[in-house]
Amino acid sequence: MPTTQPTPPAAGGGTEPVFCAIVPPHVLDKLARHDDPALSGPARRTIRRDAVERTQRNLTTVIGAAAVAPRAGAEPGKPHRTVHDARHGTDLPGRTVRTEGQEPGRDATVNRAYTGLGATFELFLTAYGRDSIDGAGLPLDATVHYDRDYNNAFWNGEQMVFGDGDGEIFLDFTLPIDVIGHELTHGVTQHTANLTYYGQSGALNESVSDVFGSLIKQYSLRQTAAEADWLIGAGLLAPRVTGEALRSMKAPGTAYDDDVLGKDPQPATMDDYVRTGRDNGGVHINSGIPNHAFYLLATELGGHAWERAGQIWYDVLTSGALAEDALFTDFATATVRAARERYGDGDEREAVAKAWEQVGVRTL
Predict the structure, then answer these.
(1) Would you state the pLDDT for residue 61?
(2) Which residues lie closer than 8 Å to 84 by C-beta, 6 or more apart?
(3) What radius of gyration do the chain's Cα atoms show?
(4) Measured between alpha carbons, how far is 187 from 194 in angstroms, rounded to an integer?
(5) Are 171 and 238 in contact (CB under 8 A)?
């Protein structure tokens, strides 16, 4: 069982605006090698575009991101959303097409992005008292129709960006609300625990986004833990793909099994932990382990998962006590401690410890 992880490349101090995309690199790499240019072409262009964005984020890390000031007329405790249209280009943010309070227009993609930004804001404010991504009313910006056949969505440290997909493997990336919530939660992590995007801490970074992305969907649908599908990206895969989502928190490794995409490689327990230097040390793969632990906790506690289970995860994320290079065992131990501090030595603390034990992660 891994107890240490390789040292990631050096970066600047402070909150790091890393490039975090929803589609794992191993998926795009497999598509890029396909014989059919209708599949390989968009994947290769997406990989190249992601590399450009990743380089830009690294430069921002070194020189420092510009501070984002509250916009004129923005009220504390209220969202301030702006959706832009890149018109299939790559210049950000693009043309402004909808601002806070405006009625829906004819572009369904714009409307879904606007709604997803609002749903994310509402969950964090209502459930946890957090005013936007940074806790201080950060304006929420998104750009849609990014590039052509772009097979990804990402948080670039400052805003959300959505591709339309290629229509062959991926559909419009604004379709699943949990994808929007997932990416925006990378911003919450950036402003709180700032988990290093590498190895186990990077997998925790990804997992936290999956957790709150799923909770945002559940909150918007008013679902209990038992009613939720616990899928990340349901509705994103095109009809030709044999699969139901990008990831499953309920059953990691079962989200897809497709002739083109291959089989979902996520492990559910430490017995199948994947050691790799790719994908920043497997951040999109090994995130299945803490994902499954949260699912087990939420279903054990029952009711609405954003309440007790989500509160425990949020307490750890925002505690200031979690190291940026935290391992799974560090995070697990912190959740047991947080459960005890908030709920005492009752069902919650016992359920947290049991969930981590079931996935093979030690708590100290």
Answers:
(1) 38
(2) 92, 93, 94, 95, 96, 97, 141, 142, 143, 144
(3) 19
(4) 9
(5) yes
Residue 51 tokens read as 């590399």
Catalytic residue among 183, 191, 304, 348: 183
Q: Which two tokens stand for residue 84?
A: 């832009």
User: In the prediction, which pLDDT does 74 show?
Assistant: 67
Q: Is 21 helix (H, G, I), strand (E, B) or coil?
A: strand
**Which strands make up the sheet holding 160-162, listed edge to edge?**
20-21, 153-155, 160-162, 140-144, 81-85, 95-99
Residues facing residue 32 across a β-bridge: none
Q: 309, exposed or middle or buried, with CB in 10 Å at 0-12, 13-18, 19+?
A: buried
> Comparing C-alpha atoms, which of 234, 250, 56 is closest to residue 161?
56
Choice among 145, 186, 191, 284 that is catalytic = 284
Task: Give residues with Cβ within 8 angstroms of 88, minimum separation 6.
Answer: 145, 146, 147, 148, 164
Amino acid at 341: E
284 is catalytic: yes
Give the pLDDT of residue 17: 54
At residue 25's C-alpha, the angle toward residues 22 and 31, to 5°, is: 105
Write down the pLDDT at residue 71.
Answer: 56
pLDDT recorded at residue 184: 96
Residue given tokens 């459960």 in the structure block: 339
DSSP 270: G
The parts of the chain modelled with pLDDT lower than 50 are: 1, 7, 9-15, 59-67
* Owner of token pair 């998104």: 142
pLDDT of residue 19: 80
What per-residue confidence (pLDDT) applies to 72?
A: 58
Of 242, 225, 223, 243, which Cα lies nearest the Cα of 233? 243
Catalytic (active site) residue 182: no
| Cβ atoms within 10 Å of 134's Cβ, excluding its own | 16
Predicted confidence at residue 75, as pLDDT, reads: 81
